[in-house]
Specification:
Blueprint lengths: L5 E7 L18 H9 L1 E7 L2 E2 L5 H10 L15 H5 L8 H7 L3 E7 L4 H7 L2 E6 L10 E2 L14 E2 L4 H15 L6 E6 L11 H4 L38 H31 L6 E7 L18 H4 L3 E4 L7 E8 L3 H9 L13 H4 L10 E5 L3 E5 L3 E8 L7 E9 L17 H17 L8
Helix pairs in contact: 6-8
């Protein structure tokens, strides 16, 4: 019998933290994620770090797989080098690769939005992998294990079922093959609830647009040019946004989330049926959030809470039950945390910080600030009470951008509605966060030209 725990790593695409029942959403139905929260530890102020391209999922996943921050995880930070910004730096030891080197069977299914060589190094078994960002959920191009490691596109076939079932059922089949003699690392990456927002038939009508409440920060349009106002994600609804169309998008978004939650329940139940539940650490997270009408935006290409804060739930051996952590965390902190839980040495390359002190209650925080970036037009720093977003004019693709700052007292204004950046009474807070943002940009060698 293995002495090390199994790992079931579940990651969604576009699932914001606030759209989970246990995280406070009274409308969306997520009983299985709620159960994971009650049986494990949930991190309620977990954020991704952004990235230098509109497809924010690429750098976020790069950070998860390498444990390195957004400016070190890929090969290139050149704003025009799209391939380099998608390719993981081969000098890193990738998360699944580390477990593979330490005797784990590593299995991958679902979306891999980075380079193929890093995937080949990571997984010893593969079924239904999708090398892309988005596609028709009913006709996803996928392929299986390639012993050559090339994963040429000529090997692709069109999946025979809805994306969430295509990937989730592959994960279940892998679980059912395990006899407990060797530990496994199972990576299941859903494309839900990313658009096209087309829930499967059994969930398509469960949420009606008329019954969807609008968020308090719903706006017809964003109050200023944020530097990327007209990209594809923002053109999925008309300008200005209307309550009717926004409610439809929310209903479709929730339908896809609830369908995915149902499949997650089936995967977790498969662990129990096969006697693996007690020996398996379950991780659930997402690459980034989504606006869906908040602040007049639809996409994730911004640094508001709805787009940077994502769920992070862990359950299993070594993880406290029914613990809610409100300390600040970054998604890539998963890497060193899993190393500690599995008794593996953390590679020197890792910038992230283990969450174990928060899980076992020996520390109140592991980092005093969170930081994030979006392309060359937005930067963010926040602590437990205050959040600063700095905007820059845009000399590249996109809209013109703005030279301005926002400051929110998020402790009293979680919907980020009241910009206090010009208020004299909080000048010290603005200056403190501006100084912290400048320090971080220097520390991580932010390639954007300094102010």
């Amino acid at each position: 019998m293995p002495t090390q725990p199994n790992i079931l790593f579940l990651i969604a695409d576009d699932h914001r933290a606030s759209s989970i029942g246990a995280y406070g959403d009274p409308t969306v139905r997520t009983p299985h994620l709620d159960r994971l929260c009650s049986e494990g530890t949930s991190f309620r102020r977990n954020c991704h770090m952004g990235g230098l391209r509109a497809a924010v999922c690429v750098p976020t996943r790069a950070c998860v797989h390498t444990g390195a921050h957004i400016f070190r995880a890929p090969v290139s930070n050149d704003m025009n080098d799209h391939q380099g910004r998608q390719t993981l730096d081969p000098d890193h030891t990738f998360l699944a690769e580390l477990f593979r080197r330490n005797g784990y069977t590593t299995f991958g299914t679902g979306k891999w939005h980075n380079d193929k060589p890093s995937f080949a190094r990571s997984f010893s078994e593969v079924e239904n992998v999708f090398f892309g960002g988005m596609d028709n959920h009913f006709a996803v191009p996928v392929q299986d294990f390639d012993p050559s490691g090339a994963y040429d596109s000529n090997r692709q076939r069109i999946g025979d079922r809805y994306s969430t079932d295509l990937f989730g059922d592959a994960a279940i089949r892998f679980i059912e093959r395990q006899d407990g003699s060797r530990p496994f690392f199972l990576y299941c990456a859903f494309t839900a609830p990313h658009d096209p927002r087309t829930p499967p038939p059994d969930w398509a009508g469960e949420y009606t647009p008329d019954s969807m409440p609008l968020p308090p920060n719903f706006m017809g349009q964003h109050p200023f040019d944020n530097g990327d106002m007209w990209l594809r994600d923002e053109q999925l609804a008309d300008f200005p946004r209307t309550p009717e169309e926004t409610r439809r998008h929310i209903a479709e978004y929730y339908g896809m989330i609830s369908d995915m939650d149902e499949k997650i329940g089936e995967i977790v139940d498969a662990l129990g049926r096969n006697g693996l539940a007690e020996d398996t650490i379950v991780v659930y997270t997402a690459d980034h959030g989504l606006s869906v009408g908040q602040h007049g935006l639809l996409g994730k290409q911004n640094l508001y809470d709805h787009s940077v804060r994502v769920p992070l739930i862990m359950r299993g051996p070594g993880v406290a039950t029914a613990r809610q952590v409100d300390a600040l965390t970054h998604t890539y902190d998963i890497y060193p945390t899993l190393c500690e839980l599995a008794g593996l040495d953390i590679p020197d390359q890792v910038d992230a910080r283990s969450l174990m002190p928060l899980i076992d209650g020996t520390a109140a925080e592991t980092r005093p600030y969170l930081h994030a970036a979006y392309r060359h037009v937005q930067r963010m720093a926040q602590d437990g009470e205050w959040k600063l977003i700095r905007y820059y004019t845009n000399s590249g693709e996109g809209s013109e951008g703005s030279d301005r700052t926002q400051l929110f007292h998020i402790a009293s204004d979680p919907w980020e509605l009241n910009d206090l950046s010009e208020e004299d009474g909080v000048k010290a807070e603005r200056e403190r966060l501006e100084k912290e943002l400048a320090r971080w940009r220097l520390e991580v060698d932010d390639p954007m030209t300094a102010e």
